[in-house]
């Protein structure tokens, strides 16, 4: 008898700051198994970080740090000319801050997932990938490193001795080399929820994704990212959870309990 499929469903949360409210974190936490919490550089602030940690613990959701570039205005989605040393320092700083809030609330940091431009830069740049992996290992060696499936970040994490999770995206299109279509392209996002669901099922059940060039490529889906800041984020989170469960796929964070 074949082993039951299982996958983690993660969402970027804690992106409000000051007087600005983004997303409905409390509602989305009902449907995901892990949360990537902004650490104050691209979004979030100390009050929001603590609130989101507490909400995640109440919902039994695995908590991850979501370090990004220091670009609040650009939401961390603009590339910056940063050195590996600078990246190492910013990741240590942000992971340390979020980990402290988790510890203060009686929990334990489960994973680290870089955000936005930092994530995409590390997916292709081995030097930046090594810096991130080393920073995570030095601060929290038992943490899982989330990265783009098959990317330099996943390879770097494995080299330093971290547990890794190959991440795929529900609402993003793919290129032939396995990278995400850049956001500046008009076809970068999948707007139709039905198409996004089909893409997720193909990645989780068949280990394949159809690229913008029209060919299916192999992909490993340990964790699926859904975004919490879109206009239909909550309804999509509910729907994808229902579909995956109805397909007999267990939803659980890596090494965590089934939700």
Automatic annotation (TrEMBL):
Keyword entries, A-Z: ATP-binding, Hydrolase, Nucleotide-binding
Keyword Lyase: no
Record Pfam families: LamB_YcsF
Stored InterPro entries: Glyco_hydro/deAcase_b/a-brl (IPR011330), LamB/YcsF/PxpA-like (IPR005501)
GO molecular function, one term: 5-oxoprolinase (ATP-hydrolyzing) activity
Any one GO biological process: carbohydrate metabolic process
UniProt-listed Enzyme Commission number(s): 3.5.2.9
Catalytic activity as recorded in UniProt: 5-oxo-L-proline + ATP + 2 H2O = L-glutamate + ADP + phosphate + H(+)
Broad class of enzyme this protein falls into: hydrolase
SUBUNIT field: Forms a complex composed of PxpA, PxpB and PxpC.
Family that this chain belongs to: Belongs to the LamB/PxpA family.
NCBIfam families from the UniProt entry: PRK05406.1-3, PRK05406.1-5
Entry function: Catalyzes the cleavage of 5-oxoproline to form L-glutamate coupled to the hydrolysis of ATP to ADP and inorganic phosphate.
Protein name: 5-oxoprolinase subunit A
Organism name: Pontibacter diazotrophicus
Gene: pxpA
